[in-house]
Amino acid sequence: MSRLRVYRVMIGRWVGMLLGRNTYFHTVQGVGAAFKPGELSGYYSDLTGKTRWQGLIDAQGIILNRDTEGNPVYFPISIIQKGLGHWDSWLFSQRSDGHHLEAVLQACRWLLQHQDQDGGWTIWFAQAPRFRGPYSAMAQGEAVSLLLRAYSVKDDPDYLSAAQRALELMLRDVESGGTAHTNADGLVLEEFVMNPLNTILNGWIFALYGLYDAWLVEPSARLEGALNQSLNALIAALPRYDLGWWTYYDSAGNLSSPFYQQLHLAQLRALELTFPERAEAFSAFQRKWKGQYTSRWNRLRAVAAKGLQKLIHPPSAITR
Fold it and tell me: Which value, to the nearest 10 degrees, does the dihedral of the CA atoms of residues 166, 52, 203, 283 take?
């Protein structure tokens, strides 16, 4: 893998950020406009911008990303998020725009066709040695959210079965090939199962959304227990993602970019609305982190510090 290629792509994105340009991968994601707490309706985050893909597609219309070397690859998270964006767009059309619904079902068909025997979708770069497993709790949880929404309108048992299998893998311990682990505070969901473990905040929350959606559709003591355990662990972990003037992207101490700082704000707001009994804990950090973000000095400082971090420790892979 060319280190120069990684730097070129990374610097190009960073320059765009400094110039105020939003890319497809960093379109602002506020709270979903069709989101309704306590209902399997609009999605928690606004992913409608993901429907405006201008890149490669395969013969079935499924989007193809490019890996660091420029080779076309399927990236499950991109496919699923585009599907969720089409779902909300379909809701905005008063459920009348068949194009958006077909795009939702198209993504779900891909998920059914590519779900492996363990119930997961492998992430191409997560098969490198620094990863302990090829799966992502974020991908699994978002797939649950998309499949269950499709099931709610099509009543296709294949969608429900795939969602159940995806959830089982997501909740399986990392030592057994899954994406979850338990600490003293509760259940942690790993966006990527790294070695050593490094918990990415936004990915954990996206996975939590999927767990909650599963509980909405098929409530059980087991799912409620897992949900409460993960919410407890998340609330206990929030102070560790607070730098004082900005947020950390992950538990390894990497700073959030301005995009991810904004995403954290929207995610906490959605959690506050979804779990009113825990609203105070989420709203306290949402207010604090919003205050951090509204400071122009903090944003400039974060861009500079994050850029330096990436130059010193560039990512091993970049998806385009």
Answer: -120
